[in-house]
Amino acid sequence: MPELSGQLMATMLNHTTHVSLYNLMNVLPIRKGEDPYAFIEEDTIYSVPMHDFMNQVIRNKLKIIPDSVDFNTLNETVYVKQMESNDFYKPVWPLVDEVLRTSDIDIVVYEGQLDVLCDTTAALRWMHKMSWSGMAGFDAVERVTLLDPTTSKPEMFVKSYDNLKMYWVLHSGHVVPVDVPYTAQRMLRYIINETY
Fold first, then answer.
1. Buried b or exposed e, range 164-188, using 16+ CB within 10 angstroms
2. 137 and 64 share a domain?
């Protein structure tokens, strides 16, 4: 499976104008010969470099992160180990299925519609591999459109049945909170409050 990911990445980089696998509406800011994902280190959230955001803003808010922990956007050592151990491609659906079948723990799945790596269609496909007795009920329930309160335009869809919820987040790729931070915040409130 890692070979397919590498092939997909190479194909996207070589046959497009460097379209990002994380958000197909973004073009990677690279020049010939550069590492195509080096830009991640310069990624920002709320106009603050990601490294600073995590190590300063989040560290100060949580007040529980040990000083020995240093957040990096992309750690090459960790990435290589994950690829070597096939950790990126371990199926999650058997675990989700077991939790749904044996407990009342809520399961929330969310997908950014513009994510190439973890796309919505693939998520729906793995969900349908489950033997959970509520899957037919989940399929029968209509999706609810949730509107952005500032624009009154759709920002996400949600489908909920029993203890399974799925959010389709519009205008977002792999990193929903970075692409659409206010939408992600509202989604989190919906999840916590269980109201729309």
1. bbbbbbbbbbbbbbbbbeebbebbe
2. no
Mean pLDDT of 185-195: 90
Whether residues 105 and 189 fall in one domain: yes
Cβ-in-10-Å burial (0-12, 13-18, 19+) of 32 comes to exposed
Residue 153 sits in which domain range? 91-193
Assign 41 a pLDDT band (cuts: 50, 70, 90). very low
Say if residue 97 is in the same domain as residue 186.
Answer: yes
Give residue for tokens 């909170």. 177
Q: Are 106 and 165 in contact (CB under 8 A)?
A: yes
Q: Is the pTM of this model over 0.85?
A: no
Distances 169 to 31, 146, 174, 180 between C-alpha atoms, Å: 31, 10, 10, 9
Structure tokens, 194: 């269980």
Query: Are 108 and 183 in the same domain?
Result: yes
Residues found in the chain: 196
Half-sphere exposure (Cβ direction) of 47: Cα atoms closer than 13 Å:
0
In the structure encoding, which two tokens stand for residue 68, read together?
């020995």
